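Bumping my old thread because nobody answered last time. Still need a sequence for this structure:
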């Protein structure tokens, strides 16, 4: 469990007045509900990106210290045929934007290539993105083939969320994390090799995102130094990251983290978190964004969403879309092409072209 402002234990409720049943239906049972339930889109008239579940559980034999996935599910994969049936029905109800999400690692699906190939060829959605990826699965021969397929069949702006959590060797060891720094480095290089070229809407086709997590076992001031050292290496070697998510761990009963230390390291280090996070935002995010979308880059299909004073804010539809600030009021719920004129820490300023 993670959250932007974490560090709490899961809420405990008096359950004596409730009938408790485990709700984890097999995918064979879910497939008909997934198709029938797609009609709910008729009740959601605004634009939306639809998340398609491809698997549940985790394929690792031993899991990360904080993870609740093995508590909830055993590893199970949806059949390609059932996913395609859901996409077909969702398209009938107007869906054009899709993300293959929820799974612990998209690359671990036995039909990872065939799923995106058939969605592209049969339904040609406007947006097709993925979500979580284990860097270890990227660096294999099969992983490289999946990466090539994602670049070919998915749409630009796509992000592989790497659950790195920490670059500190001691934290990695004590929390049984899924990747070491060298493996992550190799995976970042592979995605940059095949995915950094911009697509039609102006964004790179497929880049890594890095997830960092505060509050894990054996976290120390050295942890931030390790994180910064590796992130600076990416920056110095001109390896693009789409985004860096920094969260604090939530502690759930039944996880090794709960049993081993609870919130010990959150309490010990919480006073440093704002400083650590801001250091990454200033020293890594800011220069990285300028490499990602330099001034004068044209970004297409920016959907205008809200006003803040005389500024209009908009985004492309997709996974982790960049927020664009346009310094005037323009009609909302329309799409525009913009030219990048300036950079904030994690967003950009643009003008309509």
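Sorry it took so long. Here it is:
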């Amino acid at each position: 469990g993670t959250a932007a402002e974490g560090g709490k234990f899961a809420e405990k409720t008096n359950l004596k007045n409730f009938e408790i049943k485990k709700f984890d239906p097999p995918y064979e049972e879910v497939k008909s509900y997934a198709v029938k339930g797609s009609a709910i889109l008729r009740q959601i008239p605004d634009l939306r990106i639809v998340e398609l579940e491809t698997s549940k559980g985790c394929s690792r034999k031993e899991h990360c210290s904080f993870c609740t996935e093995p508590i909830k599910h055993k590893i199970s994969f949806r059949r390609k045929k059932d996913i395609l049936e859901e996409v077909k029905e969702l398209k009938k109800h107007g869906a054009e934007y899709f993300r293959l999400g929820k799974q612990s690692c998209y690359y671990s699906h036995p039909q990872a290539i065939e799923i995106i190939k058939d969605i592209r060829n049969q339904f040609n959605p406007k947006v097709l993105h993925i979500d979580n990826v284990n860097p270890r699965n990227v660096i294999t021969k099969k992983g490289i083939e999946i990466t090539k397929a994602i670049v070919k069949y998915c749409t630009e702006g796509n992000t592989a969320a790497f659950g790195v959590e920490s670059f500190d060797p001691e934290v990695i060891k004590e929390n049984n994390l899924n990747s070491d720094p060298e493996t992550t480095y190799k995976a970042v290089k592979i995605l940059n090799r095949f995915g950094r070229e911009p697509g039609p809407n102006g964004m790179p086709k497929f880049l890594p995102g890095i997830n960092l997590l505060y509050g894990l076992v054996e976290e120390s001031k050295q942890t931030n130094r390790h994180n910064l050292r590796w992130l600076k290496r990416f920056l110095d070697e001109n390896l693009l990251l789409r985004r860096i998510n920094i969260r604090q761990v939530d502690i759930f009963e039944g996880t090794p983290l709960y049993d081993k230390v609870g919130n010990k390291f959150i309490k010990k280090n919480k006073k440093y978190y704002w400083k650590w996070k801001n250091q990454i935002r200033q020293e890594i995010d800011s220069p990285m964004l300028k490499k990602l979308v330099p001034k004068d880059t044209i970004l297409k299909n920016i959907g205008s969403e809200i006003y803040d004073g005389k500024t209009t804010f908009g985004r492309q539809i997709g996974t982790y879309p960049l927020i664009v600030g346009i310094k005037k009021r323009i009609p909302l719920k329309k799409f525009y092409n913009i030219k990048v004129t300036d950079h904030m820490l994690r967003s950009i300023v643009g003008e309509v072209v």
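The chain has two domains: 2-292, 298-352. Let me know if any region looks off to you.
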